[in-house]
Amino acid sequence: MAQATSPPETRPEDEAQAPRYSSDAAGLGKARAGAFAAPALLLIAVFLVFPALWVLYLGLTNYRLTGTAAAEPQFVGLDNLLDAVSNPTFWSSTWLTVQFVLGSAVIGQVGLGFAIAWLLRDRRGPLKRVVEGLVILAWILPSAIVSFLWVALLDRDGGTLNALLGLPGFAWLLDHPMLSIIVFNTWRGTAFSMMLYGAALGNVPPSHLESARLAGASGWQQLRDVVFPHIRGHILTNLLLISLWTFNDFSPFLLTAGGPDGKSEVLAVHVYKVALQSGELGYGAAVSTIILLINLVVAVFYLRLLRSKK
Amino acid sequence: MAAIELRGLTKVYPGGVRALDALDLVIPDGEFFALLGPSGCGKTTLLRTIAGLETATGGAVVIGDRDVTGVQPGARDVAMVFQDYALFPHMDVTDNIAYPLRIKKVSKNDRRDKAAEVGARLGLEHLMDRRPGQLSGGQQQRVALARVMATQAQAFLFDEPLSNLDARLRLEARTFLKKLQRELGVTTVFVTHDQAEALAMADRMAVMESGHIRQIGTPAEVFQRPANTFVAGFIGSTPMNLLDGVVRGDTLEVAGCKVAVPAAAEGRLSDGGKIVYGVRPEYMTYSAEPADGALGGKVSIVENLGASHLVTLDVNDVNVQAVVPEGSEPAVGDDGYALPRRDRALVYLDGELV
Amino acid sequence: MTRFVLGRIGFYTLIAVLLAFFTVPLLWLVTAPFTSDPTYEVRVPDFTWDNFAALLEHPYALPSLWNSVVLSAGTAVLVVIFAALAAYALSRVRLPGRDALLYALLLLSSIITGTAAMVPLFQLAVELNLIDSQFGLILILTGGLLPAAIFMLKDFMDSTPKSYEESARVFGASPLQIVRDVVVPLVRPGLATIAVWAVANVWGNFLMPYLLLSDVEKQPAAVITYTLYTEGGQANLSMLSTFGLLYSIPVVLMYLFVSKKYGFRFHGGIKR
């Protein structure tokens, strides 16, 4: 009892070691900071992380949207994955996706985006604003609308393109579905690359370009010796991001619905068709797992690059 | 108003960097005190620890007669001017000045009156409804000062208050700040890396190096009698001559010349000992004629300082500098002799003043 | 001299081709709504308002635009509030495991996409009874946008000097006063950017509402677009074009607002 009433022994050493109050800029402290972060982390955990983990699990079952397998899904191990890799439709979808990414993202958007940024680099005034505005418009309009605009543009009988080219009755979406969605996606997504390269070119010090010009470098030599080394980081960032986005893009579905005959069924559309239209959720999840893995590889590669730059 | 006392104040960052190493310091009530040192010496950490923005890992901060070591910054009754002034860009000048009063729940009218009063005192009357972004650097500084004055805190802390101003404005602000502090009489600690600023403004100053205080004193003391070679090298707009030498009986041998033992060191040196001989270029008498106890050599460089010249002599391959009044500067290549003032020359033994 | 002239000609030819490529697909959207009985062909409009009148009578068209507003605004509000709180905490306080958490967020935001997660999200919505719930969809969309939003905002807050908060703190402001009086006003441009970004994302999102809302009365414009067919099963072009125009205008206005206010440009955020 005596101990309880006597004042606690002061131990200045111990007291001195631990900070007596939080020392961040606003004095928030760890507990309050945790409370600030909690709602966001909770939503992310429930609606992003959990579904991703669930995909991994689903991929190992024979879960179906309807029927007996819907009530009592069975664990089937790697069967779905093996099914996928032995399924020719999966491989043709993968190949179409590669074409889609290379054609519309790497060649189309990067090439066109850089070209526009380069052409307009020294310009001010209405011409630049109009060109940039139109390119950005294509990017920001809702995908449901732009895909329909392209359906109208490419229509066999009354389409504007055929009227312009004098090719009535040419069925672009049926005869060249991949070409159509590649050009469509180039048109739709160029804005991001254009703006990124516009910003990157703005950061190339004018003195470097001027000294190259004083040394007598041609336009191409300036590009190769001054501009590209300077914006290499931006090019990589851009390539990886838009590859990732294009790889996961669902909007080709709005244009061709994967048809005709699966000739434009990229992986995103493939998953939708097998999982939600045919109801094979397990198999669909296995394909989703593959998509996640590919995303992961690209993202980790990208983050590595960023780190090594710092 | 209150004195500030630091007892064994220590700050160790996670990772083991000792930013402050057991500092003891007393700043009496009403003093204008400078913390001076090169970047990374811990002066800003010290100021922030007094404010409470950094928590001390050891020792104590006492303001007035209250130990505030474990007290939140807002409850320490100090006010601080930040290097970038930290004026809230979304508030006009009145609201900025009145913000501390708003925190103290002063009524809106009283806040406005107080802000107007303090603003007028600092010549801000016509700027009261502007945003900080519309003010010049000097005006922003005065708003930051007004905000601090409005708090009526026990002590003011200024972090590099002049470093964001243009060179010319800085001189004006220096005079202004010193006058203002004198009028207010509030204990004020300011941090600077500019020795001229510290000498000009402070009543007393502490010179810091890597977490330690190397000298505390009035500007005159620190300038005339630097306690060690670090302070000697750091203080003064023209660097002090610090020359290696040897004690030879009752004289010193420095750069191959014989010079007299400085008055303060007389009888305290042992024969044959290695010393560092220090004398400021301002405390040299230059002459073209040889003189007893002078350092003689050839003029290698002459730099114009405005009203005087800084002459560099090559004395047996050692550079010795002397300040020469205008009109009597030599030409490069001339023979010259620099005679140290005996009452101002210093001797350092193992880096410390004798 | 001739080289210069050729260069000019080449430049303007290229620009003309580019302008044509980006304009031609859009022409239909601005002509068809004002044309009586539009076809896929772009014709000089006869400036009729009949199509708009017809659209007004469609039972789901205008309500779906309202649904889009509800979904985008709801998501934007939640994203801004939750992302701002989390980004502030992560920017200013050394929470244990912060760096790993940020790295994980960055990874998550780029690898888990609607495409990859549509199956479990669908199931999750079924299990939690969130099918046909706009609020449920808002939560799901918020969860998807949060990692990127937190990351962008944290970047923004990292670049805001701490001295503002420290200054308020020395004057005795409490953490919540500091957040309210100093932090929120300071990062308002960042919050606005995130809000616009979230609205734009949700406004155009087709896949998630398509999967999770089967009740026509709750579906947003993106989904309703695909139901505008005539009784014969043909696309109802007068409806579609008119509806498309109305559906697009808010995005265009938002773009004009943003580009005027902030300049539609990239800053630090995107380069991370």
Oligomer: heterotrimer
User: What is the level 1 CATH name of the largest domain in chain B?
Assistant: Alpha Beta
Number of strands of chain B: 21
Tertiary shape of chain A: globular
Biggest sheet architecture of chain A: none
The chain-level mean pLDDT of chain A equals: 81
Strand content of chain A: under 5%
Low-confidence stretches of chain A: 1-19
Ranges of chain B where pLDDT stays below 50 over 5 or more residues in a row are: none
CATH topology of the largest domain in chain B: Rossmann fold
Number of helices of chain B: 8
Q: So, CATH architecture of the largest domain in chain B?
A: 3-Layer(aba) Sandwich
CATH topology of chain A: MetI-like fold
C-alpha-based Rg of chain B, rounded: 24 Å
Tell me the span between the first and last alpha carbons of chain A: 61 Å
Question: How many β-strand runs of chain A?
Answer: 0
* CATH superfamily placement of the largest domain in chain B: P-loop containing nucleotide triphosphate hydrolases
What is the H/E order of chain A? HHHHHHHHHHHHHHHH
InterPro entries (chain B): AAA+_ATPase, ABC_transporter-like_ATP-bd, ABC_transporter-like_CS, ABC_transpr_FbpC, ABC_transpr_MalK/UgpC-like, Mo/tungstate-bd_C_term_dom, NA-bd_OB-fold, OB_MalK-like
GO molecular function, one term (chain B): ATP hydrolysis activity
GO cellular component, one term (chain B): ATP-binding cassette (ABC) transporter complex, substrate-binding subunit-containing
Pfam families (chain B): ABC_tran, OB_MalK
Brief summary:
The complex is a heterotrimer of chains A (310), B (354) and C (272). Chain A is mainly alpha-helical and 310 residues long.
Describe this structure as you would to a colleague.
The complex is a heterotrimer of chains A (310), B (354) and C (272). Helices cover 74% and strands 0% of the residues of chain A. With 310 residues, chain A is mainly α. Chain A has a single domain (85-309), classed as MetI-like (MetI-like fold, Orthogonal Bundle), CATH 1.10.3720. With 354 residues, chain B is α+β, with helices and mostly antiparallel strands. Helices cover 24% and strands 35% of the residues of chain B. In chain B, α3 (108-121) crosses α4 (137-151). The longest helix of chain B is centred in the middle third of the chain and has 18 residues, at 167-184. Chain C has one domain (52-271): Orthogonal Bundle (MetI-like fold), CATH 1.10.3720.10. In chain C, 73% of the residues lie in helices and 0% in strands. Chain C has helices at residues 2-31, 50-57, 61-92, 98-111, 114-127, 134-158, 163-170, 175-186, 188-204, 207-212, 221-224, 237-261, 268-271. Chains A and C meet through α3, α6, α7, α8 and α9 of A and α1, α3, α4, α5 and α6 of C. Chain C: Residues 65-258 form the ABC transmembrane type-1 domain. Chain C: It is a multi-pass membrane protein. Chain C: This is Carbohydrate ABC transporter membrane protein 2 (CUT1 family). Chain C: It is found in: Cell membrane.
